Amino acid sequence: MATEITTIDYTVPADVYARYGADFDTEAVNDAVLAELNAIIPEGVVVERNGKVFAEKSVEDVARGLDWKQLIGHIDLDQILAAHGR
Can you list the alpha helix ranges (DSSP code H) found in the chain? Predict the structure, then answer.
């Protein structure tokens, strides 16, 4: 059984889209960010689409110690946006 650890905001803010001045499939962008984030966090930790973070008992302490801003900062947003422009 997984324990809820925290809630994070992984979604791309509107000002980022505005800086690029293009039209994007925002849902697909956010889904791609979420997929990338879940790929780089430790096994047994998962971020759900609503931003809630859950961890298996064996990695609860690890999950609580994660620097979510830093992890999200490692995601190549330019590449994701390039793949999801309209």
Answer: 14-20, 26-40, 60-64, 68-73, 77-83
